[in-house]
Fold:
Amino acid sequence: MRHFHEWLNGSAGTTRTILIAVAFAAVGLAALMPLVANPRTGPREIVLVARDMGFYLEGSTERNPTIVLKASEEVRIVVKNQDSGITHALAVAPLRASIDRIAPGSTGNMKLRAPKRAGRYEYACPPHAQMMKGVLLVAE
Structure:
């Protein structure tokens, strides 16, 4: 312990350098924490809930919402069918992407890549398209 105190008292410049290095390391680690805590692996997930003959973003009350995608973005769309006794589907015909049958109480999913160009693309439940349809809006 005596040697540590001698070193600490006798080398103020070294101690200051070490403290500065430790401070920079702490700030650097703090800056990296969001990347470590939430690594971006895979496509963005969009969860739609089919209920009351409509699509809803999970946790939302907006019926058949407009879903905004970035040009060329890859997404995974998950559909949870909460309508008892009714089988649903999801199709984005212009993008040739679909989930054919989602039984009551089941979940279906698909991956798709948004077009490179901005535009509006309808999504729908083909058997119930009069009530269950919305828009994928591709923004640049």
